[in-house]
Amino acid sequence: MATKVVMEALSPTMEEGRLVKWAKAVGDAVKTGDTLAEVETDKAVMELVARADGQLLQQAVAEGATVPVGDIVAYIGAPGEKVAAQPAATAAAPTPPKPSPTPAAVPAVPAPAPAPAAVSAAVAVADATRVVKASPLAKRIAKEKGVDLQLLQGSGPGGRVIMRDLAAAPARPVVAAAPATAVSVAVSSGAAYEDVPLTQIRKTIAKRLAASLGPVPHFFLTSDVDMERAAEAREALNQQQGDAGKISFNDIIVKGVALALVKHRACNAWWQDDHIRYWNEVHVGMAVAVEDGLITPVIRNADRKPLSAIGAEARALAQRARDRRLKPEEYTGATFSVSNLGMFDIDEFTAVINPPEAGIVAVGAIVPKPVVQDGQLTVRRRLRLTMSCDHRVIDGATGAAFMKTLKQMLENPLAMLL
Amino acid sequence: MPTITYRDALNQALREEMQRDETVFLMGEEVGLYQGAYKVSRGLLEEFGAQRVVDTPIAELGFAGIGVGAAMGGLRPVIEFMTWNFAVLALDQIVNSAAKMLYMSGGQIPMPIVFRGPNGAALQLSSQHSQAWESWLAHIPGLKVVAPATPADAKGLLKSAIRDNNPVLVLEGEMLYNNKGEVPEGEILIPIGQAEVKRPGTDVTLICHSKTVSVALKAADQLAGQNVSAEVVDLRSLRPLDEPALLGSVAKTHRAVVVEEGWPHCGVGAQIVDIIQREAFDQLDAPVLRVTQADVPMPYNKQLERLAKPSPEKVVSAARRVLYLD
Prior knowledge:
Chain A is of the alpha+beta class.
């Protein structure tokens, strides 16, 4: 029997896809894993691959047509095999999106083989809104020990948390220790993050602020940063590097942000509606303008990567973003973001937070400015950074402390070595 | 303590009870002159005479009905079926008369009757004569069902069954009759409804009864070699079920595998899993697994029959799965 090829969820939020181009013609031999077509999702152009071997018997969708996730786009089968009665190819007209509110996880799996793209998409979603699978016993022990199951990586089938996974889990008081103390601790190794339940005051702050200023209650902190020494360091480094990957100011800023986040975990956090997730890993999202919008590829563990690696990765990600070739796992999972409009000669601006992250730093242009130093008027290269904070997670003083650390690091790049 | 066979343990139980109470009598095919198809009634005709050891025609429904009538009249019949496969013919008397008499007479007519015989597969008796009926029988309110695995349990449970004022079905095993075990001398009475831990352990509970007790014990030996400590719980009685014993063991090990000779669908194990998930939900670290006969009529072919039956290897595999070792 012919195998149906359906539109797969190629990004975590994809509800429909536009078939850009067929890579196989009717009658072509196809093998599992072969690219059948290029599909434009809501984020990128992705490859729809074959999940069966045989011959492409029929294209059920014309190039340019938009198809809801789960709908049939083609059939694969034995040469000469008849395809069961089905509607003719859909015209290249936009199809109304399916009402289904759950895009990624639900679509009918078409073929026997598992779908790697769909799986990675599902994983990306699961990261953000993970339903913890745990044995009843593990749940009971976790409750008794005050361990947050979200923190654990289950070793049972499908990631189920089982008793042995709790043996090594650190206990914490069930009644939340004041988040303030937990928060002030610097990023440590071990679990990827820690979920701290909301205290009453935090819930009230969240509710009131959210009601006052849209779903994410922003506030902004601006800092004027002297970039003279950073510029000198950059020039020296780039002379040494030669042409092998220049380091940009943006790379230095990303690194500085990552290191400052290590010192201020309170800002490296996700708002999760009923709790706050404080990350022990630092993944910096980097807003990149693309032709018809904006996407935020992620530099993972940026605090632990050398500047040269951050630079190379940032360039590669930005290029793939502009080519719309980013994979879902490359643009999800940031714990904090940086947005840079310096190249457009913007002095300073405010960026909108990318939920569930709690903060974003907007980077303006580096420009020579008259400043007073040691009582003397001099000209220095200066940069204005503006941090947008989600007030449900970050309070004024918390954000300010982070910005102070960031400013110190950029003004004295040697501090990054500390 | 004397070591005797399961067969002789049953024989002792019958003899002792017939000596103790003259209203007890044995009836069935070949129980008298032939001394029992499996020689369980050896010597009884000689000792107690033809009035109390009664040979019957091949007419299960008929002699089961005579037994029910005798119990109504104040006697304590023990009805032997050559196997429980043949007892299917007598199910109307067991289910509709024996099981319901006390209830439908408003408590006026007790039913002190025992139905006994070998149950489950032996070797190459094929589809019609290799069946394990306990899920059918334990289904019926008004009946008690016991399934002893050892000579001592066989003796103690049969004696309790004979003294019980309710119909009690004793499921024996053709493959068990020759098994030897220590049986205390003199009176032993094992209360109906009590499970026994046949081997203590800490990591996984193997729940079994009748012939699967030896399967589970062999599996526990193999598991011990893999650093897994298995607890073997012998149900002994299927109705009533010893729920506290089951739940106590699961509370200790957090994992269970149910081993039975019957088919999986609506089997005894399904009932046990229901109890465990309902009463010990928060104790479970893994879903309860079952090892049963394959869901097919028992094959005659020796190799296929072996594959269709529960085996220590299947139990080990299930135990490793609930321990997340595989």
